[in-house]
Write the structure tokens for this entry.
Amino acid sequence: MKSRLLACIAWMAMAFSLGAASIKLPFITIGSVTYSNVTVLGYNASDLFFTSDHGIRNVKLRLLTPDLQQKFNYDPAEAQKAEDQQAEDEKRYHDNLAAQLTSEYNAARDAREAQAQAIYAAAGLADPAPGGNSPIGKSAPDLDFEKWVGTRPDMNGKFLIVSVWSPKSASCRKWIPALNDLYKNFEDRVNFVGVTQATETDVVHADPKPDFPCAIDSESKFMSAANVTTFPCVMLVDTNHVVRYQGHPAALTAQVLQSVLTRPEESSP
């Protein structure tokens, strides 16, 4: 709407510079529409601007009757050139407007995201690996696995802790009891999921083993998508499916988790 108004103003400016004002006509018929009590405001190479019983209008000279085309100096080649220029100008305006709106949206989104992530940083969950490859603030990979040890939980409506581990890793086994304690204390508010490349048999016979469901990522699709390079690794995902922390489980204590859960969560951008 705004672009058309600006274009109309520009065309009318051209019209007044090229055409004579105060030309009155009893009517103009364009297709099936007849405009009565016409007062011509001006015209340019492609358009006629006028007032009538329909209000202010502009029509293309190419749509007028031959006698009116002659009256307003219609030249098909010049009219086409003018229309092409009008189309180019309007496209440029739309492109510039789209770029401006995109820039403003991105700036507002980034500001909201920085404010949201500050909550987690203040709770002690600062990004351990800031930079272009950091998953923080980005959508978490889908937990779409065919095999589960335990029942796959409903991922909607709760925070999610994903524990990437290996039953054969002593470092991973060391942190299983701490994660099981978190699961026991927060399972009503947080979903817990293990992800491993190990076999179902290895998970079942692990000692200690997770009390929460564990997905089998035999082809490392999740680990690759999440850019997990070291074990053990935990990922905290908010209710908007955005990663808020990814790193060593030592940072994710009961106190930290309680602090995060009692703060108002930011809505999605």
Summary: The domain at 125-261 is CATH 3.40.30.10 (Glutaredoxin).
